[in-house]
Amino acid sequence: MSLSRRSVLATTAAAATAAAVAPLATATTAYAAPTLPNGTSKDKVLVVGMDGLRHDVIAAANAPHLKSMMVNGTYGTSLLYANPMAATSSGPGWSTISTGVWPDKHGVKENSFAGKNYAKYPGFLARLAQVRPQLSTYAAVDWKPLDAQGTVTPGADAKLVLDGDRDGYTGHDATIAAETESILRNQNPDVLFVYFGQTDIAGHNSGAASAAYRQAIDVQDGYLGRLLAAIRARPSYSTERWTVIVTTDHGHTDSGGHGGSAIEERRTFVLAQGPGIAAGARPADTRLVDVAATVFHQLGIVPDPAWGLDGKPIQERSSDPFEALHPALSARVDETGIPAGVLGWTHTAPSGWSVVNSAMGTGGVTEWRGWSFATDEFWSRSQRDQSRELNVRSRGVFAVADSDEWDDKASSGPYDSTLVTPAYAVAGKSTVTLGLTTLYRQEGSQSARILASWNGGTPVEVKRYTADVISQPQSLTLNVPSGAANVSFRFHYTGSNNWYWVIDGVKVTTG
């Protein structure tokens, strides 16, 4: 949420103060739980959204239920986009969670919801109503736009929509917890989405570094504990397969607030526990779009490629060759603005790969001298608001050539570096396809070229980038020449204090 889309009235601030002193708030208004259709699935999913919950503050809170889920489930943290793709605010965040696609697809860039494209990219409850209408589904929210704008509730068999902006979130969060607890104990739902908003209010009013913010986390953790206990108390629990997912839409600054590009505002997480989800796992390749994909996977639903999902199930690891480089990642050398504890870059190439810097100039920023391998946490910290935050479709470790950052320290000569793949067997094949994800920003005379070398021969240019490509999948299919036994690819980048080129998800297939 953000202050620009709500009126935080004195009554709301008072409610936030009350939450800070009450270990478990109680509902102020009685709402009768709706009667849901009887569920039809033994595979069941509860998604709990906690607005504006900065994951690195959980450790300082009591939060026993969140911490238990971290021990018994998989906990993936990641960073959001920033403008111009979208603001780090609730409209884009919850749209990303619900639809399973990034803002350049779902269209929501800020809290006006202008440009929303839910007709093409509906929320996961709406998808379930289309492909598995026999499921019993429920949604409860107290930020009204999640209903009014069609972000979360469409497709639900029953819903509870309250107005936290008008009435305060403390009492309404408690009502949502009580009603959902009743439904879990006394009815047979299959899929539920419930939302709690007070963490965001506490962040705005007191800042993410405050005791009030930690207390708000503890209150919502108590609600989570009640929902988990209700699941375990179900008479049919032993025959059911429950998945519980907890997530958030954005982070908060220490002093309170979000919407911008600071690392603290961009922090998000997906925490999941259930069948097939590893206990204690801390994947580096999880993204916020993975919530919807995990819901579908846990229900045994294979998404139609036409849905265009950007996410994957949380238990599915990336097979990208750069992921093997995590043990080699180092701390800063020249990038003094990056905290020393962030291990996020290396010049070590994956096995079979190489970097050719024979034409590189001298000097420059050590981390970016030639093709490097880095994480979002490290690379996007090197300089804010130059669209490095838009590298959303890269996961974990990626390759980056960044002439702009390299030139921030005295250097001479050009930036000229080539990343070379292993040789891939193509004997007897008619075509070979190179797949990858690219973030590329064009400026001036810089160049970005892909070249192919057949049987170790002279590399031939097969693609050249001349315009921006903002984190998009790429596919390049080539005919295999007669007599070719193998092919290797080269990514050649030159620049003179221009921008950068990122590649990730490299996959070579033959046909």
List keywords for this structure.
single chain; alpha+beta; seven-stranded mixed β-sheet; six-stranded antiparallel β-sheet; 14 helices; globular
What can you tell me about this protein's structure?
- This protein is of the alpha+beta class and 511 residues long.
- The chain is built from 14 helices and 21 strands.
- It has helices spanning 10-21, 64-72, 90-99, 103-106, 124-131, 145-148, 164-167, 169-186, 198-206, 211-232, 263-266, 290-298, 376-379, 403-406; strands spanning 43-50, 74-79, 137-141, 158-161, 191-196, 241-247, 267-273, 345-346, 354-356, 362-363, 372-375, 397-402, 411-412, 415-420, 424-425, 431-441, 447-454, 460-465, 469-479, 486-495, 500-510.
- The strands form 4 sheets. A 7-stranded mixed β-sheet has the order 2-7-6-1-5-3-4, with helices on both faces. The protein has a 6-stranded antiparallel β-sheet with strand order 8-11-12-21-16-19. Strands 9, 14, 15, 17, 18 and 20 form a 6-stranded antiparallel β-sheet that branches.
- Strand 17 and strand 18 (460-465) form a beta hairpin.
- Helix 1 (10-21) crosses helix 9.
- The two termini are 48 Å apart.
- Mean pLDDT is 93; it is low at 1-28.
Strand-helix topology:
Elements: H1 10-21, E1 43-50, H2 64-72, E2 74-79, H3 90-99, H4 103-106, H5 124-131, E3 137-141, H6 145-148, E4 158-161, H7 164-167, H8 169-186, E5 191-196, H9 198-206, H10 211-232, E6 241-247, H11 263-266, E7 267-273, H12 290-298, E8 345-346, E9 354-356, E10 362-363, E11 372-375, H13 376-379, E12 397-402, H14 403-406, E13 411-412, E14 415-420, E15 424-425, E16 431-441, E17 447-454, E18 460-465, E19 469-479, E20 486-495, E21 500-510
Parallel strand pairs: 1-5, 1-6, 3-4, 3-5
Antiparallel strand pairs: 2-7, 6-7, 8-11, 9-14, 10-13, 11-12, 12-21, 14-20, 15-20, 16-19, 16-21, 17-18, 17-20
Protein name: Alkaline phosphatase family protein
InterPro entries: Alkaline_phosphatase_core_sf (IPR017850), Phosphodiest/P_Trfase (IPR002591), TAT_signal (IPR006311)
Organism: Streptomyces rubiginosohelvolus
